[in-house]
User: Fold this.
Amino acid sequence: MGRARFAKKPCADIYCSEWLSYLRRLLPPALSTAIEFDLSDLMSRNRRVSQKASTLVHAAEGFGGIFYQSRHGSDLHNWALFAPFEFADSASSELRSDDSDFRSALKLLDLQFDPLS
Assistant:
């Protein structure tokens, strides 16, 4: 288990209205099946849309990655960092099978943990 703080540049929150407006202007209309590009296009399973959005953020100055909410729940946060990257502060500890956070994550994702003996 661990935590880390990204060292260099901020991550673009591509689900916020400012970024959606920016992407709406730059994404080719052929990538979206909707009449007007919106958040549902980014969250769809059409990987071409999210890959193109990532390319546009990478080309923009001043961003070290992308922040977005998971399709599996708005309370789950994800970061995609552009290489090369470094962390300013990090800490980790041994992952224990009885850790309550670990167990909660397994339950949330409907996973089972079977440690190798």
